[in-house]
Amino acid sequence: MKLRRVAVPVLVGAGGMAVIAATGVWALSGGLYGCTGDDQELAPTLASLSILDAHPNRTQPQDERYSGCDEDDGFAYAGQYYQYSTSRAGVLSFYRQAAVEDGWRLESTNPSPAPAPGSLAVDTSSLCFEKPVAGTTAHLSVWFPSDLGDSAGNYGLEVTASHDGFAWC
């Protein structure tokens, strides 16, 4: 009888500690915050998408292609910056056609996405497309740093997606 009085609390305590340890491992691996392994593995897939290589005449890639996983919001991303000497309208027209030809669906347009003075930038995408990639929905954004008061003559393409969280343009 005495053995049972000791064994039950020990077993319950050990089971509780196992649950706490498993929860800690889950939380640290991206369960509560950050990127999961699936989304970290998704970033190179996004970086290899052919749309990031597409650009109009009179534009040049600028810097290296980038990719990674956003630890704050838990989504994978990849992108490329370009320098252009054509018109902004020409850049947008090019991607309206090139993205659709590559299987992307136009989700939204915003010809002048600059935030109002003193407000936060919520969405700076001039064009936003979406398409299925690797079992999830990817979002392609065409945006201009000059809309945020930076780098006139440059634009960026960025693809975001997530298996385990939420991604957007």
Q: Would you kindly provide a brief summary of this structure?
A:
This is Secreted protein. The chain has 3 helices and 6 strands; from the N terminus they run H-H-E-E-H-E-E-E-E.
Biggest sheet overview: 6 strands, antiparallel
Which structural category do the helix and sheet elements fall into? alpha+beta
Content of β-strand: 25-35%
- Stretches where pLDDT is under 50 for at least 5 consecutive residues are 6-31
Strand order of the largest sheet: 1-2-6-5-4-3
Helix content bin: 25-40%
| H/E element sequence | HHEEHEEEE
Computed CA radius of gyration, to the nearest angstrom: 23 Å
Number of domains: 2
Structure description:
- The chain is of the alpha+beta class and 169 residues long.
- It has two domains: 33 residues; 125 residues, no CATH class.
- It is 33% helix and 31% strand.
- The chain has three helices and six strands; from the N terminus they run ααββαββββ.
- A six-stranded antiparallel beta sheet has the order 1-2-6-5-4-3.
- The longest helix is centred in the first third of the chain and has 30 residues.
- The protein starts with a helix and ends in an 8-residue tail after the last strand.
- About 15% of the residues have low confidence.
- This is Secreted protein.
